[in-house]
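fyi for ur records
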Amino acid sequence: MTNSLLGALEMVMRTDPGLVRGQNEDSVFANADRGLAILADGMGGYQAGEVASSMATVLLSSGLQRAFKACAAHTADSATGQLFAQRALREQVAVVNSAIYRAAEDQSRFGGMGTTLVAAVFCDDRLVVAHIGDSRLYRLRGEEFVALTHDHSFLQEQLDRGEISAEEARYSVNRNLVTRAVGVDPQVEAEVHTHSVRRGDVYLLCSDGLYDMLEEGEVKHLLETCGANLERAAKQLIQLANDNGGDDNISVVVVKVLREFPAAPGRWSKLWSWFK
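which gave:
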């Protein structure tokens, strides 16, 4: 079977410890040919956050790739219409959550560790995104720059209730308190959504170490001006975050859609088309 994603996407990933933290507890994964990008921001005691985020990206990327070998990501359930990618993301995030939770339970030095997570699967001109916590995914389409994820955080809940303004949120002492994370509890539910994808779209997965340091307008402007050079865009995003203080680890995965990537019709679809 040919891979409809070959040459369809460009992905660049970059991570940096920032200027304040002694170690980097972020972890990233990107594979353009498989249409898969993952970013995790770990939390916990000494080195535990690094362990949690690394486990998340390694286990989730390998689990999803095994799942998509058995069943194509774009395959739709006949009863619900749900893409297999949606189901696989939920199932594999649950597997990762259990693995991190068990590791924290079994080894005291990893006690309380966990990680945020944002994962993107590109298939059949669509994007399926799963997230837990406050790592984000943005989309630049033409002049429109929007967040496709909604933070699982105490601060976001305050914003949703209208208790604070967006300006007040930037300086809140509660801005890093997540209400949902991978590996902290025995079970966790990933929020999963599907979006259409267009040629020319630019997607940005990032940790809070980036967006806490930059205004959204700054990020949009940089992606617009550097969209033709993703390596430069990723480097400049991290440099700007560090120029503004670099208070946390900074990680980005930048994805550009170079062409459409509709799924090839299956054998039975081709056979049926001959009789139409």
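The longest helix spans residues 48-70. thats all i got for now
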